[in-house]
Amino acid sequence: MSRGLNFVLVLLLGFFGAITTVYGSQDLPGEGSPTDFRSLDDEVQDLKKDVLKLNRELFILEEELLFPTNTQVAIFLSLGSEVYFALDSVQVKIDDKVVSNYLYTKREVDALHRGGIHRVYFGNIRAGEHELVAFFTGKGPQGRDYRRAATLVFEKKIGQKYIELQILDLENKQQPEFTIKEWE
Amino acid sequence: MFHQLFFHGRLLSDVTHEKSSVHSKVLPTTTMFYLQLLGVVLAVFMVAESHSAVTSKPRVVRDLAYGEALYYFYQGDYFSSITRLQVAQHHDLLKHHREDAGILLGGLFLSYGLHNEAANIFERLLDQNADVAVRNRARLYLAKIWYQRGYLDKAERALSNIQDQGLPPEVTSERHLLLTYIYMSQGRYSEAVDILGSWKKSDDLGMYSQYNLGVSLVRSGQIDKGFELLGELGLMPAENSEMRALRDKANLALGYTYLQQEQPELARTYLERIQLDGLASGKALLGIGWAELSLGNYKKALKPWAALSRRNTIDSSVQEAQLAIPYALANLKAEKQAIQYYHKAIDLFQSESVQLKNLQDKFIQDGVAEDFLHSDTIDSTRSPEGMGWYWRLDDLPAGPESRYLYQLLSQHEFQEVLKNYRDLKLLQRNLDSWASSIDAFEDMLVLRRDTYNARVPRIQESSQGFDLEEAKKKRDDYLKRLTGIEQRNNVAGLATAKEIDLESRLRIIDKIITEYNSGNTLSSEGVTGQQDEIFSAQREKQRLLKGVLLWQEDQEFKARLWRTRKNLRQLDQQIGAAEAGRKSIFNAQRIAPQGFEGFDRKITAQRDQVRYLQARIEKSKTNQGMYMQNLVLTELGRRQKRLDEYLAQARYGLARVFDLTATREDGTP
To answer: What is the pTM of this model?
Structure first.
């Protein structure tokens, strides 16, 4: 085979997009070189990393400012019930004052079913004894409207206070169970 | 959307997305790749979870902070998930899920294009946690990501770290194919031939590998062998559009090669194998026409060109057909028609040229990126389709640029740069939002400091009004007295105020009676016997009452002792609380100003950092924008140059036909 033909074939293979050239630069003569692309990509990676780090720092600063550790209280909700309760919304009262009303979307409920835990409330309370009441609304067994409450009297000491509202299935009673757990 | 993905997917599929055609014939390959990427991240993450003894149904999350990050992760809100994980790591709130969280964070970094960070995490954590299969799959995907981004060295290293033991056939195939792409991209064709030649292919990847092997053979100097392989590929049955497109590529390459070699019949044979509705059909029709022309079949040449000329005039094959048709007509001595076609071609080229020029001016003046992102309405990093790898350009700009740039837009490099540009914009919004929050933080801090400064004097004044030491001294005295009362069994010591009053009154009565008795002794002549009786009765009454009082006090003594001790204990507590309060106030007075200063320092430092990063983002956006502009202008310039050449050829052809006509008319008697 002639050298000319060899050249043409190589040229044509390049022109028509030899498979390898798609990600490389051979099919883009005159454009930004791979080195340029890589250095730009490195630059953006570094920048993204720095912004994510700063975002974290600012998030922490915001929490420290708005919710000092001594008065901080966080209330979470987890959903272990898959059969006997379909969650629609939750209302949380502390010392008879509504602090949170949350209506869940399908996507959020799905995330809860898969192990996600939602922070329903994040705020400040004084040290001392408090009463927490959570109202859960949704569909119970056989798709009936269902509203239940759970109560906890807790002591807020100096330091963060974490409380978890748990919704579980009680297999033996074929009912959902609503409990409140204090975290150390 | 799928239209755009299709184009992109076609090109991507050429390199690394062979599996997509195996697994799905519906989804575009690029989408499949990202889904697979997400899949591998999840797989890695799930396996890591299983290794940390976490049950899945219902999942037992043992750290609230980890569950919170999962809550956002499962909703596709990766930015929030990253933030929560990072904050939880900072506060050491992931005691039970430290490694799971690390791997999840690695996957999320990967989705944000932070492949170096992700790789570091994977290398560190996967080695300890995941099984070999998951490790291998993670490395394969890392290699793909690096290959796509041009990090060939890293991609090769990741592939070399894949362990052969128990490697599934599909992973083996992908690994080999990817390695050949890396070699070919680096011009290492002999090494590519070695791998491709020794590797047994059993699926669709085989066709890609054969094509690559053919190309590698030709490029490494083994022309005949390469031709033979490409020829075989050109006749292979193809089950899907992807494989048919690949077969077309082989036939097209061979057809044009034989055209250049002046073997038109052979060229026509290969070109006629190309499907008419495929991406290569334009070039095939053009080539068939040239093959017919080379064989002297002018009329036959007109057929494919006429079919081609009715297609979109933006295609270079269609443009070339506009020149080829009058050329053939002129050779058929149909000069009048040839002149008409040349004029038509000149009008077309001029019109296209003006449009291209306008576009180039527009892009030089306005830049490129914003034009492509004008319909991008995502304004929050919270959106599942916010930042990161899963975003694609859905809608092309409505203007004429789409016609010229769709090929460029479908290319990975352009998409990546555009995506980076878009990510930077979203990060910029995030920083802008923090910039205003920081001002609010500062105001909040000022308010808190003012409130504190206003309260301190009041608290100091209030604490000065209460002498804690004096209170403690009194309490000690009480205790001492109580102990004495108890030891001496002094029941009167715990008498009530009423009892004390009664005691006092009884003492006065006792004194009067005593004084009376002593007076009576001194001057008995003044005292009557009747008065003696009265005093005697009163003394008895006084004694009785004193006895009753003592009895009462004795009866109540133990209860009073208990109550008094209880009160003392309460007093102890109150004094303790007062001491703690005083200590707390003292500490607060000592720490609060430091806290304010600490916040001040943090706010100042982070505001500076926000400004610094805002400036860096702006600069990087400019760089990305310029890079995109360069890509676009180069592409438009290439089209412009080709149009200029076609225009010159059309004018030359027209002049040639006029000459021929004039010569013929001159020669006509």
So the answer is: 0.69
